[in-house]
Design brief:
Blueprint (H helix, E strand, L loop, with lengths): L11 H54 L6 H12 L5 E5 L5 E4 L13 H6 L4 E6 L6 E11 L3 E10 L1 H51 L13 H51 L4 H32 L8 E4 H18 L3 E6 L4 E4 L1 H17 L6 E8 L4 E8 L6 H4 L19 H11 L3 E7 L3 E9 L5 H14 L9
Parallel strand pairs: 7-9
Antiparallel strand pairs: 1-2, 1-5, 3-4, 4-5, 6-8, 9-10, 10-12, 11-12
Helix pairs in contact: 1-4, 4-5, 5-6, 6-10, 7-8, 8-10
Length: about 500
C-alpha cells in the first residue's frame, strides 16, 4: 500500500513555511484575543458607566425633590419611578439581599446572593456579570445603597440583559476571525513564495556543486541572486574558476618540470654512456664529469625546491631561529650570484645601513634573497645593474629591497606572479615555485613581501621584517669570518 504523501516534503522549504505561518498565526491570535477582550471590556464598561451615572443623577434629584411620607409602600413606589431605567429591571432589596419590590411587579420570595449586593452594602457601587437564575440569560447587575430620611436604607439593584451585546461581540469575533483567516491565506501564499525564492536558488547551487564535486569545473551557477545566496553563488563560481586555473597551472607545472628534469637527465645519461664506452682523453673525461656534476646539482635544486614547497604547504617547515645581520646576509647573497651576474656583465650594488638585525633562520632568509636576486639577474639586460638596499622603516621594522632595470612584469601578471607554479615566461625554465616559497618563508618570519613592476622598466621587490636586538659576540664572529674569506666585499657597497 502506498504511503500518503505530505503536502510539503521535509526540507528547508517546509521549515520556512511552517515557521513563518506559526509566527504569524501566534501574532494574529494574540492581537485578536487582545482586541476582543478590549472590545468586550469597552461594551461592558459602557453599560456599567451608563447605569452608574443614572444612579448618581437620579439619587441627587430624588434627595432634593423627595416628599416626606410615612407610607413605605408609597415611598418605594416613588423610588421605582424616580430611579427606573429603560430596558433595565430595577429591584429594591433589603440590606440582607431580600427582594422587597421590583419594576416588573413580581416579588419573588428569594434572597439575592450575588457579589454586587455586599459591595453596595459596603458603600461602593457593586457590579456582577453572570447568568440569571431561572432564565439562564447573560446579565449585568449593578447595585447601590440608597438612604432615605437618614434612617431607612435600601439597595437599588439594576439588572440589564447582555444578550444583544454578546451577539454583537460574537459577530465581531466572526468578522475578525474571517479577516485573520484571509491574512493567514495571504501569509501562506507569501511564505511559499519566500521559501521558493530561497530554496530554488539553493537547489540550483546544490545541483551545480554536485557536478563540480564530480570534476566538472566548467559548469557555472547562473542567475542573478541577491544577498547571501548571491555571495554563495559568486564564491562557488570563483572557486570553480580558481580550481580550473590551478589545474591549468598544475598541468603547466608538470609539463615544465618534466622538461626541467628531462634536460639534465638526458645530459647525465648521455655523458654517462659516453664515459662508460671509454677511449676519451682526460680533458674530455673531465668535461663530461663536470657536466654530470653540474646537471646533478641542478636536479638536486629542483627536487629541494619542490620538497620545500611541500613542507610549507603541510606546515612542516622547521626554522632554526637566531639573530641575523642583514648586511652580512646580503653580502653572502651577492657572493653566491656574482659569477652568474658577471656572465651578463650585470653590476651588483649594495647599500645597507649598519647594525640592522632581524630574528630568523639565516639559511631560509638567504634562500629568499638568493631567489629574488637570481630572478633579477635572469630577467635583467646585459650591462645593467641590480641594487640591494636595506634601511630601517621604524624602530620595529626594516625594509630590504631588490631593484632591477630589467624587462619588468605586466599588470596582467603582477597579481599572479607569486602564485604557485605560475611562470611569466616558461621558456626561461624553473618550477614557478620560487616566489611562492619566498613569500611563505617571509610570512613565517612575520614579514611581508611586496612587488612593484612596470613592463620594460624593471621590478622592485620589498621585504619587510621585524627588527630585533643584536648579539655582538655572535655577529662579530660571523662578520670576521665572511670578511676573511671574501676580502673584496667592500668593493660592492654603493
Amino acid at each position: 500500500m502506498e504511503r500518503p504523501r505530505t503536502m510539503i516534503k521535509k526540507g528547508m522549504r517546509r521549515q520556512i513555511v511552517l515557521h513563518y505561518i506559526l509566527v504569524v498565526f501566534l501574532a494574529l491570535l494574540l492581537v485578536e484575543v487582545i482586541f476582543l477582550l478590549a472590545i468586550r471590556t469597552y461594551y461592558y464598561d459602557s453599560v456599567y458607566s451608563k447605569i452608574k451615572n443614572h444612579i448618581s443623577v437620579s439619587e441627587s434629584f430624588f434627595q432634593k425633590n423627595m416628599i416626606p411620607s410615612d407610607n413605605s409602600i408609597y415611598l418605594l413606589q416613588e423610588v421605582l419611578e424616580r430611579f427606573s431605567l429603560s430596558k433595565t429591571e430595577l429591584e429594591i432589596l433589603s440590606l440582607n439581599g431580600d427582594i422587597i419590590t421590583s419594576s416588573t411587579g413580581f416579588q419573588p420570595d428569594r434572597t439575592i446572593t450575588t457579589s454586587d449586593v455586599p459591595e453596595a452594602v459596603g458603600g461602593s457601587v457593586g457590579r456582577w456579570v453572570g447568568r440569571q437564575a431561572g432564565t439562564n440569560e447573560s446579565v449585568m447587575a449593578v447595585s447601590k445603597m440608597l438612604q432615605i430620611h437618614g434612617q431607612d436604607k435600601y439597595v437599588l439593584r439594576y439588572i440589564t440583559s447582555l444578550e444583544e451585546i454578546n451577539n454583537d461581540l460574537l459577530n465581531l469575533t466572526l468578522l475578525s476571525t474571517a479577516i485573520a483567516a484571509a491574512v493567514m491565506a495571504v501569509v501562506v501564499g507569501f511564505s511559499f513564495g519566500l521559501a521558493n525564492s530561497i530554496v530554488k536558488p539553493l537547489n540550483n547551487i546544490t545541483a551545480v556543486s554536485a557536478q563540480m564535486a564530480k570534476g566538472r569545473f566548467n559548469v557555472r551557477i547562473k542567475g542573478d541572486y541577491k544577498f547571501e545566496i548571491g555571495d554563495l553563488a559568486s564564491t562557488l563560481n570563483y572557486m570553480a574558476q580558481e580550481i580550473v586555473r590551478s589545474n591549468q597551472i598544475k598541468d603547466d607545472f608538470i609539463s615544465s618540470i618534466s622538461h626541467e628534469l628531462r634536460t639534465p637527465l638526458t645530459s647525465i645519461k648521455g655523458w654517462s654512456e659516453t664515459l662508460v664506452s671509454g677511449g676519451y682523453d682526460p680533458e674530455e673525461t673531465k668535461l663530461g664529469v663536470s657536466i654530470i656534476s653540474k646537471e646533478s646539482e641542478r636536479l638536486i635544486g629542483l627536487v629541494e625546491e619542490i620538497l620545500d614547497f611541500s613542507k610549507l604547504q603541510q606546515n612542516q617547515m622547521k626554522l632554526s631561529i637566531g639573530v641575523v645581520d642583514v648586511k652580512v646576509l646580503l653580502q653572502e647573497t651577492i657572493l653566491n650570484v656574482w659569477a652568474k651576474a658577471e656572465k651578463k656583465r650585470i653590476h651588483l650594488l649594495l647599500e645597507c645601513e649598519d647594525a640592522i638585525f632581524v630574528k630568523g633562520d639565516a639559511n631560509r632568509l638567504k634562500q629568499v634573497f638568493l631567489n629574488l636576486v637570481d630572478n633579477a639577474v635572469k630577467f635583467s639586460h646585459e650591462d645593467s645593474s641590480i641594487e640591494l638596499s636595506a634601511k630601517r622603516l621604524s624602530a620595529t621594522e626594516t625594509a630590504i629591497m631588490v631593484r632591477d632595470s630589467g624587462i619588468g612584469i605586466s599588470e596582467a601578471h603582477i597579481s599572479r606572479v607569486k602564485d604557485r607554479f605560475f611562470q611569466v615566461d616558461a621558456l626561461n625554465g624553473g618550477t614557478g615555485l620560487g616566489l611562492a616559497i619566498s613569500q611563505q618563508l617571509v610570512e613565517l618570519h612575520n614579514g611581508t613581501l611586496d612587488m612593484v613592476s612596470e613592463l620594460g622598466k624593471g621590478t622592485e621587490v620589498t621585504v619587510i621584517l621585524p627588527l630585533t636586538e643584536p648579539q655582538p659576540e655572535v655577529i662579530t664572529e660571523e662578520v670576521t669570518q665572511v670578511t676573511a674569506t671574501f676580502p673584496e666585499l667592500d668593493d660592492w657597497e654603493a
